Amino acid sequence: MAEDLGKTSTGMQPNVAALLSYVLGWITGLIFYLIEKDNKFVRFHAFQSIVIFGGLTALSIVLMVIPVIGWMLIPIVYVVEIILWILLMIKAYQGEKFKLPIAGEIAEKNA
Questions:
Q1: Which domain holds residue 42?
Q2: How far does the chain reach from its first CA to its final CA, in angstroms?
Q3: pTM score > 0.85 for this model?
Q4: Tens digits of per-residue pLDDT, 40-96?
Q5: Whole-number pLDDT of residue 1
Q6: Residue of 34, 26, 27, 44 whose CA lies nearest to 10
Q7: Which of 28, 56, 103, 110 has the least C-beta neighbours within 10 A?
Q8: Is 62 inside any structural domain?
Q9: What HEC string does 10-58 produce?
C-alpha cells in the first residue's frame, strides 16, 4: 500500500476491513458501516457495498416477477454482480478508493 489509510476502530488493517465489507455484499457492507466509526476509507467501501449490492439485489427481485424478459435478464445481473464483487474487493485490498459512478458519489457523501 502506497499511502497510510489510517487506523480503524475495529483494530483491523483498513484495506482488510474494506475488502471484508464486500465479502457478503450489502450485508457485510452494512455491518462494517455500523461498526467502523473512525476510518473514512473503510466507511466509503462499506457504504459503496451497501448501495451497489443492495441495488443489484433489489433489481434481481424486481426482475424475478417480470415474466420472460425479466427472467432472461437475471443471469446478466448476476454476471455483473460477480465482476463488480471481485473488482471491488481487489481495489479495496490494494488500498484504492475506487469510485463507481453514482454509488461512489453517494458513498463518498455518507462515509
A1: 14-110
A2: 21
A3: yes
A4: 999 999 999 999 999 999 999 999 999 999 999 999 999 999 999 999 999 999 999
A5: 43
A6: 34
A7: 110
A8: yes
A9: CCCCHHHHHHHHHHCCHHHHHHHHHHCCCCHHHHHHHHHHHHHHHHHHH
